[in-house]
């Protein structure tokens, strides 16, 4: 009888502590997550003239925000400006190379002078380079880190003094599932996106005391129409084929408007991280729970990818084949029309 009583007391004690622990976690979560409205807020989106950045710009305008977008190509920005003006509200477009800290400082100063202090920063600018690692040069890695690590750092440092002074702000860092799992033939991209995840997580921990919420976004493939402007090396036509088909198929990729909505809602709540899409969630879970199995599966996938190591660079729209013009990529081509991905100059 005494033994039974002891066991019941132990279960009761464990249950009490478990409930208390859960209550503490939920309480802390509630304190750290605060809903916010973007009405009359100033939102700055890097890489906002096309693709996901452009989709986010449209959604933030519909939320009643004042929106500034920046990009490197004047023609692309001009087309974006026409569409944003047609939506009404306050918006502006700026030419800026966000890998240059001097240009970033000047761009942020112009936004704040025209639209007011930056309340929300979206670090979205990005590039994709696909091909075997032997085809990649040190310059490819430097380019990826410049745009995915240094550029978000420059823009964050430029807006941070104002946010800290006001004791409020939102920073959204668009990383990728490639920042959780290093995908074959995307090594510079994945390595630099891993770096962005680390930067973003560290900033969130340090800036929470200043009322600044940092959200790390790790989506899977998104149908923005961007493959035609990505860079391909090695057997560029074959590389473009597997990438563009994967990027277009439902189930493997997500509609860009849905992704943008999820990103904005996550930032509104002040979430630390958002994994967008079932493939991204499953991939991150598999990497965490079964790293050896995940590595073996990725190695298996790599053996079935093109193995040509030519270092010559081609854009996606220079790598078209009958396969990439077929019904398999129809959704991606429609997305390119909607999201200002067509007519981008060749670099």
Q: Whole-number average pLDDT?
A: 89
What integer value in Å does the Rg equal? 22 Å
CATH topology: Rossmann fold
The coarse overall form would be: globular
Gap from first CA to last CA: 82 Å
As a percent range, the share of helical residues equals: 40-55%
How are the strands ordered across the major sheet? Answer: 3-2-1-4-6-7-11
Q: What structural class do you assign from the helix and strand content? A: alpha/beta
The major β-sheet equals: 7 strands, parallel
Q: Enumerate the spans where pLDDT stays under 50 for 5 or more consecutive residues.
A: 6-20, 22-31
Q: For this structure, what is the CATH homologous superfamily?
A: NAD(P)-binding Rossmann-like Domain
GO molecular function: oxidoreductase activity
Family: Belongs to the short-chain dehydrogenases/reductases (SDR) family.
Keywords: Membrane, Oxidoreductase, Transmembrane, Transmembrane helix
Protein name: Short-chain dehydrogenase
Give a topology summary.
Blueprint (H helix, E strand, L loop, with lengths): L1 H31 L9 E5 L4 H12 L3 E6 L2 H14 L3 E5 L5 H15 L4 E4 L5 E2 L7 H29 L2 E6 L12 H21 L4 E8 L1 E3 L7 E2 L3 H13 L4 E3 H14 L3 E4 L1 H12 L1 H13 L10 E2 L14 H9 L9
Organism: Stigmatella aurantiaca
Protein name: Short-chain dehydrogenase
InterPro entries: KR_dom (IPR057326), NAD(P)-bd_dom_sf (IPR036291), Sc_DH/Rdtase_CS (IPR020904), SDR_fam (IPR002347)
């Amino acid at each position: 009888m005494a033994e039974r009583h002891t066991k019941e007391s132990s279960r009761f004690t464990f249950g009490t502590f478990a409930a208390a622990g859960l209550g503490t976690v939920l309480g802390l979560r509630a304190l750290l997550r605060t809903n916010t409205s973007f009405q009359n807020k100033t939102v700055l989106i890097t890489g906002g003239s096309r693709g996901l950045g452009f989709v986010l710009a449209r959604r933030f305008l519909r939320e009643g925000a004042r929106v500034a977008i920046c990009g490197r190509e004047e023609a692309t920005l001009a087309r974006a400006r026409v569409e944003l003006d047609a939506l009404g509200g306050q918006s502006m477009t700026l030419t800026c190379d966000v890998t240059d800290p001097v240009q970033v400082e000047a761009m942020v100063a112009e936004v704040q002078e025209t639209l007011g202090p930056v309340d929300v920063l979206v670090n979205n600018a990005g590039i994709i380079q696909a091909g075997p690692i032997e085809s990649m040069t040190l310059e490819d890695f430097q380019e990826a880190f410049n745009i995915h690590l240094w550029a978000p750092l420059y823009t964050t440092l430029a807006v941070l003094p104002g946010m800290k002074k006001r004791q409020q702000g939102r920073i959204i860092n668009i990383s990728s599932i490639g920042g959780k799992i290093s995908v074959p033939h995307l090594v510079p991209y994945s390595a630099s996106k891993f770096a962005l995840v680390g930067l973003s997580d560290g900033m969130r921990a340090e800036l929470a005391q200043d009322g600044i919420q940092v959200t790390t976004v790790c989506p899977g493939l998104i149908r923005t129409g961007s493959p035609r402007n990505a860079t391909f090396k090695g057997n560029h036509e074959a590389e473009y084929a597997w990438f563009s088909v994967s990027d277009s198929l439902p189930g493997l990729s997500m509609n860009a408007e849905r992704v943008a909505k999820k990103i904005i809602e996550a930032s509104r709540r002040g979430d630390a991280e958002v994994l967008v899409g079932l493939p991204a969630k499953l991939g991150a879970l598999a990497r965490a729970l079964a790293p050896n199995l995940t590595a073996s599966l990725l190695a298996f996938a790599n053996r079935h990818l093109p193995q040509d190591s030519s270092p010559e660079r081609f854009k996606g729209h220079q790598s078209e084949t009958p396969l990439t013009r077929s019904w398999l990529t129809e959704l991606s081509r429609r997305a390119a029309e909607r999201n200002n991905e067509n007519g981008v100059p060749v670099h």
